[in-house]
Amino acid sequence: KQEVTQIPAALSVPEGENLVLNCSFTDSAIYNLQWFRQDPGKGLTSLLLIQSSQREQTSGRLNASLDKSSGRSTLYIAASQPGDSATYLCAAIDNYGQNFVFGPGTRLSVLP
Amino acid sequence: DTGVSQNPRHKITKRGQNVTFRCDPISEHNRLYWYRQTLGQGPEFLTYFQNEAQLEKSRLLSDRFSAERPKGSFSTLEIQRTEQGDSAMYLCASQNTEAFFGQGTRLTVV
Q1: Do B93 and B100 meet the contact criterion of CB atoms below 8 Å apart?
Q2: Chain B residues closer than 8 Å to A4 by CB
Q3: 3-class SS at A15?
């Protein structure tokens, strides 16, 4: 059974810092890995999708990497801004692309 | 708005009542998912449709829960005889390759 963990559970940084969020999964036979952002009381917003044949994806100030062999993905946020404050969730997607297993999330606060 | 739409956004109901939620996916997406999320946790898988066929159901989906997707378009999730433990955010997602989520329906059972 796939299990996904995220470290740290919470992170508070001053504006402008670069930061890394970590995601680990137990079963390396994943189809894709997707990172999401969730604002309080809201749904999930897709940030980046990394397909199993890819090693990383970039969008603006965000870069996500995937190492299937070690069961890890990282989300790098450059030059953080207060508007980046949210919970960041990763989801490992099974080998048939049908089932998303989510981590508990990292709650990020960027202080002005 | 061409994203995933969920209605209602909030629902407060008395214990024992039945509730129904609706999800309108992105029109060209064949796959539709329902998830449940409680405070401080990641979403937990409930069920999955490929077009109108319900292909997988979680053990979390007790016999009080039923989901449909008639004609492979919108989907409904019904909870019968609600319990306080059903209080949660219910999220719907649709997918081709990348998954897109709706804003969720927050259910409070009092």
Answers
A1: yes
A2: 42
A3: coil
Burial A45-79 (b: 16+ CB within 10 A, else e): ebbbbbbeeeeebeeeebbbbbebeebebbbebee
Q: What is the pLDDT along chain B (110 residues), one digit of tens a residue?
A: 569 999 999 999 999 999 999 999 998 899 999 999 998 899 999 999 999 998 888 877 889 999 999 988 999 999 999 999 999 999 999 988 888 999 999 999 99
| A65-101 tens-digit pLDDT | 999 999 999 999 999 999 999 999 999 988 666 778 9
Amino acid in position B50: Q
Q: Mean pLDDT for chain B?
A: 93
> Distances in Å between the alpha carbon of B109 and those of A1, B20, B38, B47?
31, 13, 13, 21
With vertex at residue A35, the alpha carbon angle to CA A30 and CA A37, rounded to the nearest 5 degrees, is: 150
For residue A63, the distance in angstroms to the closest alpha carbon of chain B comes to 17
Tell me, yes or no, if A62 comes closer than 8 A to chain B by beta carbon: no
Eight-state DSSP code of residue B86: G
For residue B41, what is the nearest residue in chain A, using CA coordinates? A104
The beta strand positions in B1-110, using DSSP E, are: 5-7, 10-13, 19-24, 31-37, 44-50, 53-57, 65-68, 75-79, 88-95, 99-101, 105-109
